[in-house]
Amino acid sequence: MSDSNGPQSVSQRELPVVGTPRPERADARRNRLRVLEAADRLFTEYGVKNVSLDAIAAEAGVGKGTVFRRFGDRAGLAVALLDEREQELQAKILTGPPPLGPGAPAVDRVVAFLTAYLDLLDRHVELFMDSENASDGARYRIGSYNLWHRHLAHLVEQARPTLDADHTAHVLLAPLAADLHQSLRNRGFALDRLKTGTEAIARALLTT
Amino acid sequence: MSDSNGPQSVSQRELPVVGTPRPERADARRNRLRVLEAADRLFTEYGVKNVSLDAIAAEAGVGKGTVFRRFGDRAGLAVALLDEREQELQAKILTGPPPLGPGAPAVDRVVAFLTAYLDLLDRHVELFMDSENASDGARYRIGSYNLWHRHLAHLVEQARPTLDADHTAHVLLAPLAADLHQSLRNRGFALDRLKTGTEAIARALLTT
DNA sequence: GGCTCTAGCGGACTACAGTCCGTCTTATGA
DNA sequence: TCATAAGACGGACTGTAGTCCGCTAGAGCC
């Protein structure tokens, strides 16, 4: 379990907040790590949706209130656990080699992103489900969603300026919803088919 | 409250089921109508998400168990309430005048459907939210989703046979998810902007 | 080291979704 | 009209998310 999920990661879920970032107290930090570790362990062993927050609190040896104050709700905990994996992808997009990183044509970068995201999503569907559906509209409030959105909007603007880039970016992200992905996989769509199909759609849409 | 939501409408939520369709018992019918009426009344008065199923049962003067046996869960009740409105759209698609009904070019029919659906969605977002998100993957199990999907897949096949029509139809439906729609509206997207943007995307994607 | 005050702690509490099963109602057919 | 069984009824029960608030412990200051 990485230690990178500080309070700033949690606040990432909300719209930008100002204020003095007080240092994290020692007991708070200890408990935060315990909870994340416990959640990781129980999720792996029993499956995400079979683990209650009471169970996680018990396993971590903390009170239930502690879990909620720290992570807000079930979605928040899932987000914290996904943070690390998503940050890898974020880094590759911002500073990695093309086509994921800068330097390739916009369309290729869109395709590379969508494909990479599908891989990530497929590996952690259950966690994504929790982070997106545990509360209404959770997906769109998460910091990383907004990051992906800005990235795509920027590329759409370059590739096809006649489209409404802001809106189109949301539309491109919509098929990456965890519940749709899980449903498609259950209907027998192989991951490769989804990737190929997604690439074809993105190219048809953005190639002029 | 229409009386068209018989047991067959409820079974529409599940994959096709065979078996003898026994006639609905009189008390069952009476209670079903009472529950739908009560739900409609309370939802209108207090807002969908502020009404518990206990409250609906109480208002309808039936036991809680009755509500659940009849509708399965919260999503099922929402689906039953939406049924009527969706059936109108279904009828227009199957037998109405073009471009919604048969007779227009495939691309125009896709655009007409997406636009009409956005209107419907916008009018009943709260109910759609419930019907899609009350349980995991509920949206994709609903009978009407599969109907919309088949409709679009058919049109995609005609408009752009090189695409994976089955997959593409799901992708076209993804941006119509209730939670995304609500989030976009909250971010200040006007309904007209969403319609215009959606049309542009559909045409860019499907026009060869 | 001791004081103070703020942030954090934790578990009892509430509210709600969904289940279960003993009881009662309706449809049928003799 | 009555007997019977299929199926509906309903409310007590369970499990979980999320809240609340009196209590505790850490951090900075003297």
From TrEMBL, chains A, B:
DNA-binding among keywords = yes
Query: What keywords are assigned to this protein?
Result: DNA-binding
Q: Which Gene3D superfamilies match?
A: Tetracycline Repressor, domain 2
InterPro entries given in the database record: Homeodomain-like_sf, HTH-type_TetR-like_transc_reg, HTH_TetR
Query: Polar residues composition bias: which ranges?
Result: 1-12
State the PROSITE patterns in the record. Answer: HTH_TETR_2
Query: Residues annotated as region Disordered?
Result: 1-26
Q: Which residues bind DNA?
A: 52-71
A GO MF term: transcription cis-regulatory region binding
Q: What is this protein called?
A: TetR/AcrR family transcriptional regulator
Q: What is the lineage of its organism?
A: Bacteria, Bacillati, Actinomycetota, Actinomycetes, Propionibacteriales
